[in-house]
Amino acid sequence: MYTTSVTTTFRAGHQLKFSASAEPYHIHDWLVEAAVSGEELDNNGMLFDFNKLKKILDEIVSPFNDKKLEDLQCFKNMNTSAENIAKYIFGQIKQRLPINVSPLYTEVTEAAGCKAKYGEKVSI
Fold it and tell me: Per CATH, is 2-118 categorized as 3.30.479.10?
């Protein structure tokens, strides 16, 4: 199996809510890595063009820039944890890939040493 990955960044704020309280609103410079996989290369010897994957990822996260994540429709009624953000991005990537390429994971880093990864079980 082949794997291709790209990274991008966005700057956005969030405020996690807990059962009895909420943390203070704060802003992060988020880092996102997205990886896709597949069994075969195309006629150019590539699984999926880096530039195309980067464009897809940038299109997904660009609406997050300089926003409070809880204000975005895609995160309404949801805690904007790195885990939930990773899952959302994964689902969006999955919808935009050709049939022979599958998303492997998305990893979201909200601060140095603090990251979450989301992927689905792949049946082979």
Answer: yes
